[in-house]
Design goal:
Length: about 300
């Protein structure tokens, strides 16, 4: 049964970090929301609530990482990737310290707090930092894996999570690999490359399109950096059209990474982008925001038809 991504994250921190004495967790006074408090309860001596001091928190994580710790830094994605950015750049990116930045409430999932709490630029920001890896899991199973992988991989990372429930895409025990996207549905007419919430919506869109005779391939690109460029180019050649789908601006995020890969390979196929286009969001029920701003299956269906028609 599908679980809220933030709950999966909190449980995974305990599951994979409790017995590893190098794992430490920091939070900026929102541990009840990020669910890092679950780790704090299990391992109080390795949990630090630094207060509303995101820049200091990230710098503290750099100090802890420099002496062999594996720090998980937690707050809302929008604040972590803006207020915490200077320390992330100097200590994670430049100094290559294994800081694990965990952005909770990605996209518009902090629905009623509105544009001040929405994160629609975070993927673009973090993938530009040298040496950082960027992950956006699409369901509970994948979220567990990204936490486990973050502990095992001594690289600075950004993990973009959500507060909401995502539909199950994978069965328990599914395998994942850094830098490799997963084809979760086959199709010949176009490929939708999605991440996070949009993978489940892409699967739903594929079912709707199949009723009209349009068969789309769905790729879960949970690892945005390093990007699986080989798979992107192969999908372009095999299906003749690419659509990116992300709960993020179409400027600089997954769509930007995919289009860069296509251009570099000289793969000339029509490409459509699903996401926000140079705008902020607003307050409201999460489902309504997804519908209004094009983060749902209907938006993918429309963009697939438009892009396939351009083949």
């Amino acid at each position: 049964m599908a679980k809220a991504i933030r709950d999966v994250y909190g449980d995974a921190l305990v599951k994979f970090g409790k017995d590893n004495k190098n794992v430490v967790v920091l939070d900026a006074d929102v541990s009840g929301s990020t669910k890092s408090a679950v780790f704090g309860k299990a391992c109080p001596d390795r949990f630090f609530n630094v207060g509303i001091a995101e820049a200091n928190m990230t710098a503290m994580a750099g100090g802890l990482a420099s002496v062999g710790k594996i720090p998980f830094v937690n707050t809302f994605a929008v604040f972590l990737t803006t207020i915490g950015l200077l320390s992330a750049r100097a200590l994670g990116s430049y100094s290559k310290l294994p800081i694990k930045m965990v952005g909770a409430y990605g996209g518009m999932s902090d629905a009623f707090d509105g544009p001040s709490h929405h994160a629609l630029e975070d993927i673009a920001i973090m993938r530009t930092l040298p040496n950082f890896k960027v992950f956006v899991p699409c369901d509970a199973t994948e979220t567990e894996w990204v936490v486990k992988n973050a502990i095992e991989d001594a690289s600075p990372m950004y993990l973009r999570l959500s507060r909401d429930v995502f539909p199950d895409v994978y069965s328990e025990g599914a395998s994942f690999e850094e830098g490799k996207g997963n084809i979760v549905r086959e199709g010949k007419d176009a490929t939708v490359i999605a991440c996070g919430l949009m993978v489940g919506h892409a699967m739903k869109a594929a079912e709707e399109l199949a009723k009209e005779g349009i068969e789309i391939r769905v790729v879960d690109m949970f690892c945005i950096k390093p990007l699986d460029k080989e798979l992107v180019v192969r999908c372009a050649k095999e299906t003749g059209a690419i659509i990116s789908a992300e709960e993020h601006s179409i400027i600089g995020g997954l769509g930007g990474a995919v289009s860069e890969a296509l251009c570099a390979a000289g793969a000339q196929v029509p490409m459509g982008f699903v996401g926000t286009n140079d705008i902020h969001g607003e307050c409201g029920p999460y489902a309504k925001l997804q519908e209004k701003y094009g983060f749902d299956a209907a938006a993918i269906v429309r963009k697939v038809k438009e892009t396939v028609a351009a083949k």
